[in-house]
Design goal:
By secondary structure, the chain is α/β, with parallel strands linked by helices. The protein has 8 helices and 6 strands; from the N terminus they run αααββαβαβαβαβα. The termini are far apart.
Length: 195
């Protein structure tokens, strides 16, 4: 096995990149100028050296506290709970949410050996105990594990004065009822709202 095959194999292990895409990336890198390659490799090396979880929310940051948690413009009374740091980026890119975040670092998945103790749940309960926090929005994925985790969080916060909500799920804007599966349709009826 030569270096091209090894690097193609390494890139194909990245999420969303198959063998063909990995091969295209390797061929692109072979044609790129050496300064680009040096900067690219330096950035990969520095990635784990410089980036770490925020001490408050658990999202990725270069400092001790991420820019969202340290911003005086964010509404710290509303905390959006997400599974992974990339979920913060997804919600931020959509715009509209002005609160802060809490990253769990996964979901409860007993078959994979992940229980509540492996997640960033204790600090969420501590944050929710603050009199400044008014609402916890649970934004876990609408999967069995995400729903189980949401239920666990709801039960863990039942004695607090904080309002616990869940992101609405259902038929997407522009969607067609004909193509909605039964579970999505059922969630749409349960999550209906007035207008």
């Amino acid at each position: 096995m030569n270096i091209i095959d090894e690097l193609t194999g390494t890139f194909s292990r990245l999420p969303g990149i198959g063998k063909k895409s990995a091969s295209r990336i390797v061929n692109h890198l072979l044609k790129a100028d050496s300064l680009y390659i040096q900067n690219f490799s330096k950035q990969i090396v520095e990635l784990q050296q410089k980036i770490k979880p925020c001490s408050i929310c658990g999202s990725w940051t270069e400092g001790e506290v991420c820019p969202i948690c340290s911003s005086p413009l964010r509404d710290k009374s509303v905390i959006c709970v997400v599974e992974q740091p990339q979920d913060v980026q997804t919600i931020e890119s959509a715009g509209g949410f002005t609160g802060v975040y809490h990253v769990l670092g996964g979901v409860i998945a007993p078959l994979e050996g992940i229980g509540p103790d492996q997640l960033n749940l204790a600090s969420l309960v501590n944050r929710a105990a603050s009199p400044d926090v008014k609402e916890i929005i649970i934004a876990t994925n609408p999967t069995f594990e995400g729903d189980s985790t949401a239920l666990y969080i709801q039960k863990a916060l039942v004695d607090s004065d904080v309002k616990v909500t869940r992101l609405a799920t259902g038929i997407p804007v522009g969607g067609d009822l004909e193509y909605a599966d039964k579970l999505t349709l059922a969630r749409s009826f349960r999550g209906r709202s007035t207008f």
